[in-house]
Task: structure prediction
Amino acid sequence: MNSIIKLEYFGISPFEIEVIYNTLSKFLLVDEGKILVEESEYVSLLNIEFPVAYDENFFQSFGFDNWQKIKYVLKEMKRRRGKKRFKITLSFCGISTDINSKLVFSLTSEIGPQFEHAIEKIEHIIDTIHIEIKNLESKRQSVSYTYDAIAMKWVLADII
Result:
């Protein structure tokens, strides 16, 4: 199993990267790199790929304080960019019962004030997502979720 967190970014301040990198490196080794884009609809992009399953064990191992720091930085990114568009992607190596697939949470600043709520919900929907993924009958390599601001919940966006 790969035990390195992949951190990729574009348009993120050195301070934000330092806090994210230092927090992630308390958990596992971090492979940091910039996303090379010539033209993007977003002012900032942040991708974090965790080489572990999305489950209770992740949040316990990662630690409450570390998760709080990551959430704080993500919320601050939203606040500092105001109405400018940015995108965050958090990926996990499947779920505890199925580590052969990838679970992706994709979030853009376009949802406005719901952004903070979406970040908070990631750690509280483990059981819901596990049930939903188990009920999918097809073989899958990747399952993506996006936040629906109208329904005020994370919804299944794509199955590959």
Notes: The mean pLDDT is 90.
